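Thread: "does anyone have the structure for this chain?"

Original post by V.I.:
We have the sequence but no experimental structure in hand. Need at least a predicted one for the grant figures.
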Amino acid sequence: MPQPIQLIVGLANPGKEYENTRHNAGAWFIKEIAEQFHSRLNMEAKYYGFHGTTKIHEQSTHLLIPTTYMNLSGQAVRACMNYHKIPTDTVLIAHDEIDLPVGTVKLKLDGGDGGHNGLKNIISHLNTKQFYRLRIGVGRPTQSKDVIDYVLHQPSKVDREKINKSLIRAIDALPLIMSGEMQKAMNQLHTETDI
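Reply from O.Q.:
Generated one for you, tokens below.
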């Protein structure tokens, strides 16, 4: 039986210029959780990011938005895990996913980095792929050479609304995720979409 999630990380690039870009979709998820569950996120130098705790479905969990650049995210994740002695298989990394259509959100355990520099660095720091990922669909540009430019720009207003709705659906699935009922959470998330 999977363990309840003890740490939810939302990947992002720091700074105002990146705040509303597609690459920061993971951070949008953490901010939405903090808002809905009335949690404060405070800058914590020892975790290289904004950190808070919250209680979801009777389970306490840590929230983290790294303030390192995306390709150094593993430093923040590792620091928080080490300090609180959090096992790898109780970590959920929320990140933007160009291989999923806008409005789609999927949950999975394990897997490669899919070319995502944040995931690549986390896998390197943790020396394992055995952590959960919440993949937030942001769509893909028509030209593959435009991927970096695409994720570092804001989505259209319509796309942002679809992404926001997908984040709400992910939060609706959190009670299942927090209690370790991952298959049920996957079934719930993967049968709903706003595309």
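V.I.: this helps a lot. The chain has one domain: 7-190.
O.Q.: and DSSP finds seven helices and seven strands in the chain.
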